[in-house]
Amino acid sequence: MARRGAGRGTVEGEGQRRLRRAAVAGGATAVCLGAASLAIEGAAGAAHGIPWFVVVPLTLLCSVFAGWAGARTGRENAVRAEMLGPGERLIGAYAVRPPFTPGRAPTPYENPPFQLLLTSRHLQLWEHSQLLWAHPWPELRLAVDGPRLKIYHRGEEAGFMVLEPPGTPLEVQLAARRLGAS
Question: What is the pTM assigned to this prediction?
């Protein structure tokens, strides 16, 4: 039975193949790195009397989770790269600390879902692989308020965020001025 969907050589088919390749590459890299580090630790553990039948299942389990996380990250990066226009290049990516949920502080190991991307033409805010907004540099004004970055698009506030690590808002503001923001 013939497979339905985007045909070979079409723009849609190429885009899907690129996303799939990026996910596989990210997953394979994470699996290899995770398995190698656990194998090394397992060998060290065997020297201390930890049996192989404890190390092998732990290595497999951790490799599966690392592969899933790597595939997800690889796909997100490929989606973001697809959104760049011709001749546009990525200058920097910064983690945006999500707002606090009342009664629950974020844990340090949580992957921040929001990222601020600086490209040669735009400032973009992403939530995982979904573009929330993108504004061209000449239409932006950035202000730093302590650890927070305030972004104004055409005079109206477009964003008010805390970037990680500390000192990043000033770095973003300086880069924005070089790229044409006021």
Answer: 0.65
